[in-house]
Automatic annotation (TrEMBL):
It comes from the Eukaryota. This is tRNA(His) guanylyltransferase. It comes from Dothidotthia symphoricarpi CBS 119687. One of its GO terms (biological process) is tRNA modification. PANTHER family: TRNA(HIS) GUANYLYLTRANSFERASE-RELATED, TRNAHIS GUANYLYLTRANSFERASE CATALYTIC DOMAIN-CONTAINING PROTEIN. GO terms for molecular function: magnesium ion binding; tRNA guanylyltransferase activity. Gene3D superfamilies: 3.30.70.3000. Residues 53-191 form the tRNAHis guanylyltransferase catalytic domain.
Length: 309
């Protein structure tokens, strides 16, 4: 039967905590861990307050909020995805990409103030040109909800896509990994819509192209051959040594990523009260297989306007 380990705690006035743990559940295994020095930090909380109120004040000390009316971006990144995707088709698995697209649609639905979503590789970026008003703009609340929603929806979509499209086949271990993908999330503000657009340019021109070229090159060259090579050098190696032109050999979404944005469309239906046919406008999400590679007025409108033009 397991026993609890007795722990002796000694507090000193200088706010340093010394902890000694003695394992005594089995005399043969009894030992004392060397004394560890832990540091505490002084917080401006009145210790005479009731326990629940003190704990809430400790929590609120780290509950930062986003600025009012500043453009905000949300970036979600797959955690350990190079290991996760190694069980699927290389260099690009359409089902993983489709799951990312569907997850972006879910995020746009969850955050109606976001105007555009961009995904490349294992990453998603959402733009809020007029800030985030949900959940009192609390960064911890927004980040934790975003990461959990993204993880849950991606796993659900990937499981569905793999079940509906078992070909091309994946490793048996891929099925064991289903449901284990997770994402981290970060919210941050930028001073202008122009800088929000620059963030998309950064993710597309820098990371999307580099990630895609690297993934594709690994199917042709060894780690040793690729070591220390820049993206331009890898592209030259492909063409010179393998006769392969990168952008002609991979799907466009693998090169630039994809953009998602709401659009309005005309719908014809019957008015249940009058029985007459009427035309109305509805909203849906449209996906385009392209990224943001130039700074332009058109792309600035992409960031600031609610619907596709």
């Amino acid at each position: 039967m397991h026993k609890l380990f007795p722990i002796s705690l000694h507090f000193f006035h200088n706010h340093r905590l010394f902890q000694t743990l003695t394992f005594s559940s089995n005399p043969l295994l009894a030992q004392t861990i060397p004394r560890m020095e832990l540091h505490t930090t002084s917080y401006p909380v009145d210790k005479r307050l009731p326990l629940a109120e003190r704990m809430k004040q400790y929590e609120s000390s780290f509950d930062f909020t986003l600025p009012v009316n500043s453009p905000v971006l949300l970036r979600l990144d797959g955690h350990g995805f190079s290991r996760f995707t190694s069980h699927f088709c290389r260099p690009f698995d359409q089902r993983i990409h489709d799951a990312m697209i569907s997850t972006c649609v879910d995020l746009l639905h969850f955050f109606p103030q976001a105007t555009v979503a961009y995904t490349q590789s294992d990453e998603i970026t959402l733009v809020f040109p007029f800030g985030v008003q949900s959940f009192n703009k609390r960064v911890q609340k927004l980040s934790s909800l975003s990461a959990s929603l993204c993880s849950v929806r991606f796993n659900a979509h990937l499981t569905a896509f793999l079940g509906a499209n078992p070909e091309p086949k994946v490793k048996e271990s891929a099925y064991e990994k289903l449901g284990t993908a997770c994402f981290d999330a970060r919210f941050f503000a930028v001073p202008s819509a122009e800088e929000a657009l620059n963030c998309l340019l950064w993710r597309c021109r820098n990371d999307a192209v580099r990630n895609a070229v690297g993934a594709f090159a690994r199917t042709m060259f060894s780690t040793k051959e690729m070591h220390g090579k820049k993206t331009t050098e890898l592209l030259e190696m492909m063409e010179r040594e393998k006769g392969v032109k990168f952008e002609e050999s991979v799907p466009k979404w693998a090169v630039e990523g994809c953009l998602m944005k709401r659009e309005q469309f005309e719908h014809e239906g019957v008015n249940l009260k009058t029985g007459e046919t009427e035309k109305t406008f509805r909203t849906r999400t449209r996906v385009e297989e392209r990224g943001v590679r130039i700074f332009s007025e058109e792309n600035l409108r992409l960031v600031t306007e609610k619907y596709w033009p």
